[in-house]
Design goal:
- This protein is an alpha+beta fold.
- The protein folds into two domains: 61 residues, Roll (Membrane-bound Lytic Murein Transglycosylase D, Chain A); 131 residues, Glucose Permease (Domain IIA) (Distorted Sandwich).
- It has three helices and 14 strands.
- Strands 5, 7, 8, 9, 11, 13 and 14 form a seven-stranded antiparallel beta sheet that branches.
- The longest helix has 11 residues.
- The two termini are 24 Å apart.
């Protein structure tokens, strides 16, 4: 993965920004650009009438409405990933929020969090049959449900207490809508292979303050 990062995609720019023009450099994508300026991907797409997010060419001039930062001096790098807190620190962080994540889908982990070749894998992959139930790992509010997130295909993002969020990607079908509150264990999607996937599986992420954490350190 590494092209789109979970719940940051659903964040909306705050008032007081200004319109600027960003020239796309090699290696950049809509997520990196939107994260740099503090503007949602959907808003950039709408403002530039982008029909295909995969067809973003080097040299393209993008209007960034409500930008919170100046244009970068060089090509934007992938977001820096943080390791999840371990041991007592992790338990303390979760205890303060009252969270207790559970497995969204039972099965073997085919790809773990961390380095994968030249890229970083920002979550875990769990193969399953097409249409298998994906369940919310914790209670929270849906802040994104749909496509247009590049390699992730159809994805659900759920916001939890303590600045945590969980991401469920490559879904065949999403069963919840943005703004809906979901309970822990509620079926929210079905396993699929949308986006950049070669077989049915769930790509699952846990993030805090937009930083990817190893889900296996949080799951029972």
């Amino acid at each position: 993965m590494g092209v789109i990062a979970l719940w940051a995609l659903a964040c909306v720019s705050t008032p007081g920004g200004r319109d600027i023009v960003h020239v796309v450099r090699p290696g950049e994508n809509l997520y990196r650009i939107s994260l740099h300026y503090g503007v949602s991907v959907d808003r950039v797409i709408r403002s530039n009438r982008i029909a295909d997010v995969h067809a973003l060419e080097v040299g393209t001039q993008l209007r960034i409405p409500g930008a919170r930062r100046d244009p970068p001096q060089s090509a934007l790098e992938p977001p820096v990933l943080a390791s999840a807190p371990r041991g007592a620190g992790r338990e303390h962080a979760l205890r303060d929020t009252g969270l207790a994540f559970t497995w969204p889908l039972r099965g073997r982990v085919s790809s773990r969090f961390g380095s994968r070749g030249r890229d970083r894998h920002e979550g875990i992959d769990i193969p399953a049959r097409e249409g298998a139930a994906i369940r919310a790992a914790e209670a929270g509010r849906v802040i994104h449900s749909g496509g247009k997130l590049g390699d992730y295909g159809n994805v659900v993002i759920v916001k939890h207490a303590g600045s945590y969020a969980t991401i469920y990607a490559h879904n065949r079908r999403n069963l919840v809508r943005k703004g809906e509150f979901v309970e822990k264990g509620q079926e929210i999607a079905q396993v699929g292979e949308t986006g950049n996937a070669t077989a049915p599986h769930l790509h699952f992420e846990i993030r805090r303050d937009r930083l990817a954490h190893d889900p296996l350190l949080y799951l029972p």
